[in-house]
Design brief:
alpha/beta, Aspartate Aminotransferase, domain 2, Aspartate Aminotransferase, domain 1, 3-stranded antiparallel beta sheet, 15 helices, 14 strands, binds pyridoxal-5'-phosphate
Amino acid sequence: MTAPLPKADGTPSFLPYGRQTIEDDDIAAVAAALRGDYLTTGPLVSRFESAFAAAVRADHAVVCSNGTAALYLAAKALGLGPGSKVIVPSITFLATASAPHLAGAEIVFADVDPNSGLMRAEDLEKAIARSGHADAVFNVHLNGQCGPVETIHEIARRHGIRIVDDGCHALGTSYRLGGAEKLVGENALSDMTVFSFHPVKTVTMGEGGAVTTNDSKLDETLRLYRNHGMTREASAFETEQDAFDHSGHAHPWYYELVEPGFNWRITDIQCALGLSQLAKLTRFTARRRALAAAYDAMLAPLAPILKPVAHTDCLPTLHLYPVLIDFKACGQSRAEVMARLHAEGIGTQVHYYPVHRQRYYAERYGQLELPGADRYYARALSLPFFAAMALSDVARVIEALRRVLRL
Ligand SMILES: *Cc1c(COP(=O)(O)O)cnc(C)c1O
């Protein structure tokens, strides 16, 4: 594995908060795809879809341009549009809200647990009560953890609300359900799960996304909206006089527009990288779990000023390693701490500024009171965390934190 090497003058290299792990066989897989007959819509796309569906134990996987496109496709597949209301927890990347909103839905922001950043059952209940009705909830498995998925499912079912899991952080995460182990993406309690293959995510394609589902009708609709909203399936053709010849055969050139859509397809080049990376998921998962365990152990003495985010009772493959810091008690602002860590070669990031506070949503929906989201945001800081890190890198981060925070 290619760990960041020290620079020529011996100083350790900069540790970003996240990055890809690309190895020689990944590069070879991409080169082989470039020599092939198809650069897009070729055999590697369906091969990736089969491999990904198997990896998360879903019946279907639809791969597309990126995670944001995947969220949008999920919204379109559920028929969300003008008049729809979608509940989204406020601590997430803004695409979780923007994608269903771009499909036409209004967003109802839900609060989160201040210590895990995850939507709780009471947050969902309150959001439903505030909105009057809701059509779907886009639940976020923040950092790679799962919240109370069973209770959320019960509440959603009681209110006739569909569930889309934003699993962009949670590839490889599992949770227990009735004595069995269920993977995020398997959709034991959801209609669809969305993933991203951006370079900071657990496996990457450069850019890429996927939606998994066990519903063949949703799978079909996802594929329709991935490709301009047009169909080449003869069984779906409705303009019969133009579609078929006298003997009832569909014309070989014919396709039909169901509803104008975008091109959210992905290339075979990206799927080649995705297949190569997906084969490493077990190793990347083990590595992320080992790094998280090292952080947990080494950070324990820094409590209560600095604590890892609250653990939930799933088995996570963490995407980020965020800690909650009492900046007031340290006598330093978060910006000062980030700058001093940066000077020590340690990259950090804040995940996330609450989406309900983003100016577009604040102007549209007014100032909402979501104290859990605010309290999580006020303390969150993501530390370097990626599969190519060494355990000595974790120790280096802790030493720098102790110096900077004077702990
Ligand atoms: C990365 C991410 C997305 C968007 O994925 P892209 O591939 O960057 O479009 C959506 N939601 C969450 C929680 C993410 O982390």
